[in-house]
Structures are given as structure tokens and as C-alpha cells.
Amino acid sequence: MINRRLILSFLWCVFSASVVADEGKLLATAGLTQLEGAGGGGIVPWATISGYETQDSYSGSVFSTQVSLDDYKMNMTGVSLGIYDRVELSYAKQTFDLTSLGGHISQDIYGIKTRLYGDLVYSKMPQLSIGLQYKELEDTAIAQLVGANKIESGVDLYLAATKVHLGAIAGHNLVWNLTARATKANQLGLLGFGGVINNDYEIMLEFSAGVFLSRKFALGIEYREKPDNLGLGEDDWKDFFITYVPNKNFNLTLAWADLGSIAGIPKQDGVYLSLTGYLW
Amino acid sequence: MVSLMKFKIQIKPMIVVIFFALLSSCATQKITLFKQLGGDAGVSNIVDNFIEEISFNPKIYAFFKDSDIERFREKLNQHLCFVTGDSCEYTGDSMIQVHAGMNISEKDFNITVELLINAMNKAQIAQPLQNKLLARLAPMRKEMIYR
Ligand code: HEM
Question: ipTM value of the model?
């Protein structure tokens, strides 16, 4: 069953095409929205600032993402503000349904990111940004049950580098991103922060790469390292995605996500569907 | 000894093949981007389309309203030939000199890039080639914006 909010926001985006998003950036260079609400790829935050604004303007965007796994379902909805292509403020609500076990976890994620250097297309070196995600867990019972050290809230800090290489692969444009994240979060924080095996911040590497088959379609892969603080065999995440960017009003991403073992249930993979709409 | 001879004889055609493969890859490298874009005719077609695109875009046209368009046409042809690697001479002014005082914003720049893409689409330049031209122009942006 496809999420109602996703459909609604999709329709809303299509019909609001007349609400003109600021079109300062080149098509697709605003990136997408990753599942914690930051401008990024799908699972990895990028150095991009979320909207189509430039250093003279600001932008607003909304996103909705759904990941349907074998035993779980994740929904993310959020908003983001891009200010002068320099600062990004984001909020996302994440809900996690244990479809086979029964149960429900939700958390709020407040994000801030600031661009330190460069432009992903025009500067010789990659665009660099530093960001922070403050995660507040609403339903703490399961985190407590699995032995998380801290159950209320946690903070992730990351440094991201993103670069587009025009015409790099047989004339096609290539984009890559590398992010280093300091985190204690178990399964993004849905299972709390820290645990019996490890209770310190660890640096996790996250990587995305994509090729533009045309101006509107891109194919790519992502990989995100994850800590295993709880000793439940938390796995690294990976996905293969195809993104459609018809215009600067919205983009749509379909992916196959392999999230490995979650809360002791192995082999969680499934379809990832995400939509970002740009308001102004 | 005999087996070694055999080996030598077998390896020779391989070397020849590799040699020609290298040669031919060099040869394709030698076809400049300028030629791939269709040479003089191809590039002047892009420039003509680009000027037309500019004339229909009020925001960008505003920058050109007092310009000598025939000079711009000539110099841009030369400049594109120059940056795409043929042995062309560029007789215009430097990118910094030309664009100083215009206060071109990031947004203006990107709109202009999109007009150039439209111009190349109209000239039926394949996207991979378009990207290669854009890749040559992109590093020049810093000489033009906010000056
Ligand atoms: C990579 C991008 C660009 C390249 C390679 C480029 C190249 C050139 C060249 C070769 C000339 C002729 C110089 C001469 O007459 O000596 C020129 C002139 C001009 N360019 Fe650009 N340009 C670029 C971007 C822009 C942008 C973004 C704008 C404004 C939005 C702009 C506005 C102008 C104007 C108004 C002139 C005419 C100046 C005059 O009247 O003397 N250019 N450009």
C-alpha cells in the first residue's frame, strides 16, 4: 500500500508546477532529499544546499519518502529551507512501522548544514559542507528494550564533499559524494544511541555516485557504513537508484535499498520511493 | 627452446594489435572537440541559435541591449574555436575585461548556460558533446560573475 501522504504530495507538486521554484541553479544540481531530511542523495547527506536558490536568494522544499522492507516500513516527510546557497535548515518526521512484529517508532530530526567551500559544478575542488542532525526519539520503548545507552535524543555531525564532473563518462555527467559522519545512532536513532558493545562516537563513511543518462535521468549507487553499538549485527546500507528530474519543481527517485539486518531480523531489502517538491 | 619460439610467434600478432589499438585511440583523440561539433559551420550554427535564444530572453537580453551583436557573433565563434582546441586565434578581449562591470549573478550565468544548451539542442549536438563543451567553459565562470 502506497503511502497516502506520498501520493498527495506528488499530486500537489504536479499541480503546483505553476508555483515557480527559484531557478537559479542548473537542473538537478539541487540534488534530492535523503531520508533524514538533508539535501543529498537517498540515504547519504550531500554537500548540496537543498533548493534551487543561489547566493542571492532562498528556497523552500518539501519531501516525502517511503521504504517498504520485508518486515518494516519507513516513512519520512519533511521540509527544508535553503538560504543563499549557504545554509540549509531541515526538519523531518520519521516513522518506522514493524509490520510483521507489530509496533511503531517515530522520531523528529532537525538538521542544519552550511556550505564551507566551492560549487559542485564550477569549482575545481568539490563543494564542501558541514552539517548536524539532532534526533529526538518519540517512542523510546523499543530502544530501551534492545539496550540502547541513551534513548531520548542524539546528535550526528558530518562533513560532506560533492562534485559533478561534466562529460566525464563517455560525455555523460558524473556526480559523486563522500560523507564522513560522527554518530552514535542505532538504525538512524530509531533504536536509540549507543549501546552495550560501543558507546562512543564513531566515524562512518558514506558514499554516493551517479551518472546522468540524460539531463533528466540519473542512475546511481550509494553505500552507508553503520555502527553496531547494540550487538544486533546492524549492517551497512546500500541502494541502487534511478532519479527523474523533469524540471525544477520536483524530482522523483525510485531505488532498491538493501538495509541488511534491522533489530535482529536479517535481510531487510525493498523499494525506496522518494519525492521532493520545490516551492520557491 | 622450441616452445619459447612458439611463444614468440604467438605473441607477435598481439603486439601488433595492441600497437594499432593505441594508434587508433590516439587518432580519435586528435579529432578536436571543435571538429566533433561540426567545425566552422557547426559552431557558427550554435552561436546563431544562442544569439536568437538570448534575444528572446528579456533577463539576459538586457545585458546585450547596447552591444554590437555582429562583433559578439564573430568573437564568440573565435572564442569557442579557441577553447575547443583547434588552432584558432581569439582576437577579442579577455573574459574578465569583457564581463567586468556587468555584475552577472550566479543565476544569470546559469540561465545563460541553459540558453546555450537550448542552442546546442537546436543545432542537434548530442548531449555528450554538449557536456564536453560545457566542461571547457565551466572553469571560466569565476572570471565573469559578480564583477
Ligand atoms: C562561459 C560563459 C561565457 C563565455 C565563454 C562568454 C564569452 C564572450 C565573448 C567571447 C564575448 C566577446 C568579447 C569581445 O567582444 O571581445 C562576450 C561578450 C559579452 N558577454 Fe559573454 N561569455 C560568457 C558568459 C556571459 C554571461 C553569463 C553574460 C551575461 C549574462 C555575458 C554577457 C556578455 C555581453 C553583454 C557581451 C558583449 C559585451 C560588449 O558589448 O562589449 N556573457 N562574451
Answer: 0.90
Residues at CB less than 6 angstroms from ligand 1: B 60, 63-64, 67, 71-72, 75-76, 79, 92-93, 98-99, 104, 108-109, 112, 137, 140, 144
Cell of A226: 553503520
Residue-wise pLDDT for B52-103, tens only, equals 999 999 999 999 999 999 999 999 999 999 999 878 999 999 999 999 999 9
CATH of the domain at A83: 2.40.160.40
Give pLDDT, residue B3.
Answer: 43
C-alpha cell, B49:
541559435
Q: How far apart are CA A72 and CA A138, in angstroms?
A: 18
Task: State the alpha helices, DSSP H only, in B31-122.
Answer: 33-36, 39-55, 58-64, 69-83, 95-99, 106-122
CB atoms within 10 A of CB B139: 11
A165, A177, A241: which is closest to A208 by C-alpha?
A177
Query: Each residue of B114-127: pLDDT tens digit?
Result: 999 999 999 999 99
Res A242: pLDDT: 98
Total domains in chain A come to 1
Nearest Cα of chain B lies from the Cα of A82 at a distance, in angstroms, of 15
Provide the domain limits for residue A114. Answer: 4-278
Q: Strand, helix or coil at A95?
A: strand
The residue contributing the CA closest to ligand 1 atom 14 is B92
Q: Give me ligand 1 centre to Cα B135, in Å.
A: 17
Ligand 1 midpoint to CA A214 (Å): 27
